[in-house]
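Please, does this match?
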Amino acid sequence: MRHLCLLLALVAAAALAQNYQPLLNHERMTELFMQMARIDSGSENEAAMTEFVARQLRELGAETVVIDEASKQLGGTGGNVFARFRGMIDAPPLLLNAHIDTVQPTAGIQLIRDANEIRTDGRTILGADDKAGVAIILEVLRTLKERNLPHPPLEVVFTIREEKGLQGAKVFDTRQLRARTGVVVDGGADPAVLYIQSPTHWRFEVVFHGKAAHSGAEPEKGRNAIVMAARAIAQMQWGRIDAETTANVGTIEGGQAMNIVPERAKLVGEFRSFDPQRARALAERWKAVCEQVAQEMEGSAEVSLSQTFEAVRLSPDAPIVRAAVAGLKTIGLEAKLERTGGGTDANAFAPKGIQCLVFPTGADRIHTTQERLLLRNFYLCGEGLLQTILHWGRQSQPQPAVSVPKATVQ
């Protein structure tokens, strides 16, 4: 079986960019991912993964490994894991981040591996979001150590509860960090796509209060909360509002029976925009609409608005972007700088003064039972991250002027 696995790894490695000699141990990285994928670690149940990655970091020679007490604030088990590695060169420290929790279901996972991908039997998710990112970081650290490669000081943060709204990163004490720049390894399947922008996100919860009455005998005495919700929804635009902005009503609940005028209705949804002011303005307008409709129908509305995360916006000329573009160029890939509509731990670090690039993992169809890890892409992402770190270190060293390739924002 081991010979077969090695053969599969060689087949996938052969598909890497031409003229680049891989530095990572791809089979070891694959086995590490599969080992972690078998650890049940849905959000609020990360203790086993916390201990696993902390042990790995200690074995790799980190000078500091700390598991924080985030669960005391968030509930559940496990904690954020922080580690620091001495640099071999004088360069600004770089943060490496991935999250160790997954969405559900994960219990009883059965892995299937072939020459091209790793997937499950279809009963559970795979958890490549984001255990592929964790595996990439750990293999890169191991390769730097084994090959004695000249790297900058590195700080690693593996977070919990990311899938619940970046909760682990939000409560992580960033005062421990010396790095002001980082790479969040939690991107998409395409190894050439780097995310340099992501939106501001607002969550809303609205409870409309009306008055119950018998819908056949005396409906005029009632105040229909569901109708209030419907009228409010009808006054707003939803879906893709413009190139920068989206809005969604995600859930609606209310009512007791078909013959009772409903006295309560609850809506939960979101606004996202790459323009922070636009997102805030939509949230505030929605609040005003809900309150006005409720008042007109002689009811009331409780509107709760919360900013879940702030926008991330990196310049294509930012040093970390230039390092990543150069790193991908080294392995034969032309970087594509894009923006994502989703949030990552980068959104939680940004308000604390730590600017992070979001790096791909090779994971596809995430958050579904059809999730898969594309091995060729997985390996390219790993090699790309390694080269990004090396280029980050070189950028700070005195050297003749060179032309660093740029990429176009898409």
In short: The two ends are 43 Å apart (CA to CA).
